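Internal ticket #5521
Category: modeling
Description: The requester needs a full-assembly model to guide mutagenesis choices. All entity lines are attached below as received. Residue total reported by intake: 731.
Assigned to: D.W.
Attached entities:
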Amino acid sequence: MSETRFQRMKDLPSTHLLGAGTAMCAGCGALQALQTIYDVLGERTVFVNAAGCMTLLSVYPFTPFRGSWLYTAMACAPAGAQGVRDALDILIAKGRIPPGEDLSVVTLTGDGAANGMGLSSTSGAIERGLDFLYICYDNEGYGNTGQQTSGATPHGARTATSGAPHGHAGFKKDLFSIWTAHRPAYAATVIGAEPLDLARKVEKAASLRGPRFIHVLAPCPTGWDFEPSEMIDVGRLAVRTGIWPLKEYENGQVVHTRTPHPRAPVEEYLRLQGRFRHLFEPEPDAETLGSIQQRVDDYWEAAG
Amino acid sequence: MTRALLTGNGAAAWGARLAGVDYVPAFPITPQTEIIETIERWIEAGEMDARMVTLESEHSMVTAAGAAAATGVRVFSATSSQGLLYAMEMLYGVAGWRVPLVLVNVSRGVSAPVTLEPDHQDVLAARDSGFLQIHCSTCQEVLDGVLLAHRLAEDPRVRLPAIVNLDGFYLSFTREPVEIPSPEAVERFLPPFDAGSTRFRASTPIAQAVAVLGGGPYSYFRYEMHRAAEQALGVYAEIARDFARELGREQPAVATHRMDDAEIAIVMIGSFATKAMDAVDRMRETGRAVGLVRPRLLRPFPRDELQRVLSGARGVAVVDQNLSIGQGGVLHAELSAAIHGQPEAPPILASFIGGLGGRDITTEEFFEMVEVTRAAAEAGRPPPPRLLYTEEELREVRKLQGIALAERHEVGPGEAHASRAPEGSGS
């Protein structure tokens, strides 16, 4: 991280590349992260998108991207990235376009696609060593359809398909580990509320070749039920409680880029969100709260 | 030009090679696999300047194919049956992207019950996807069809993907003499790929396949696809003339055989049409005025040409190697819609279903279908649809059912048991 051009907050771009006026909700944590990601990646990119909230960024005849965009379907954005990357390589190799016309290929999907039906095409793309950057904005549910439970929904969360009294019975899938088990060129977790950490990781990912993964926790005011103005607070608490570990994988090693110390109790993060209200009202659900805290503690203990 | 004995799969691979395709996303499936294996060998030997990548599914394969075509290279791919169905979402998708790739489908019946043998259920499931469809009945037509499909799909007036269909086993694994045109002749017919404005470049950013809001823009783009496909009829006629000039073979949108004074016409697609042709010749020897009509293009549907060649016939026997469950033969319904109410339209349009899952259609059955149609024309009353099946075939199935039943009694419940076909024929 020593060679980063992002040493302090003022090194972050003050104006954004991504255009304004999109259809995203107020306080969208995914859009906030994408602003910084796009600033770092730049416009010589083609975003290959899977069905999700971000599909509504480009609605005919508008696009907020200064670069290119291709919508595919829910399951197959990495395969779309494969086709674009291969075609650009072919065109350059055959001398039909100058290397200066090349683009970085970026896959942009939500957690529903990334953890569910898109996993097969993701695994295939990594296994083939595809030179692409995969960005997953993770709002922990099928957000665009009204926050139903996805493979990324955390334990205890109420969703449109996991109701009270206990919320979602399952546990958030460990997508980061699924990726790193494939030994990609790079993988990192980020959050928009920690923009310097985010910018450095995207910068590093952009400097590498091969399959690269940026996993963005995307606090979602509509899906998680909090005020849009609290989006940054929710994001910071996700990190401070240790619920969202900021880490990166490179050369077979996982390194935490931030170790919260001391860790705030998970309740501070959960309390801000209506999706966890049933854990506090009418009576505190000590068992569920305790098990959530325990899993976080166990994680950090194992992380050393 | 050279002449060689090629399988249908080999002919498809030669079509891709001569078309100078840049990119071949692939996934193995019987009976198509020989196509991608052949291409891979040529690439490895340096005889073909293309890149092949094996995806993890046909859904991804068609996505990669569409995305590469949207980036501006010439793309070829191939699949069969379940693969085509698995890719179906993206067939509709990439057709909407208006990318001109070519997909060979080696027809095979669809599951369940699972089979490896051919019929046209798979390719007709893609009927409404926006892919154009060229149907082949010989290995030569497969090679020619791939070249025609690239030229047609890439025409600026069309810009839609195309499927070239051949029957599994009957064409895919059957060797026939095929003329392999010289690369120079192909080059005169098929110019280098021109991506037009459909491409991703750093200097000219573009958003493709974006969402629309509301039925107005949605309808506009869907209508545009339909109009492009309809336009493809006239374009096909043009390019078929160019093809005949440069490569010396006629490949009209609707092929006919002995239709000049035919009172009864057989209408069908695919390799079994060559059996129909042979049956027609035999019936002609016995003095029956019978002919064959074989649409080579199924999308766009050559409505006017079919009306023209069938006008004046007294009856038509439509042979469908597919079954729209609860409706009947797809070709029959399509042809009915095309000729209904037209002056001189044949009054009798008889429907026959046969050749499912590799089942043969015999010469005797062609005779019988023509006879049923002729009798209906005499009586002035359309016959009920017929599902071709012989007593012998039924006896064979009864034997299998008997074995299944006996095995079940023998082994008893809760232990290893005889297999059960999904529709309950084992009970």
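Resolution: model delivered.
Comment from assignee: The radius of gyration of chain A is 19 Å.
Ticket closed.
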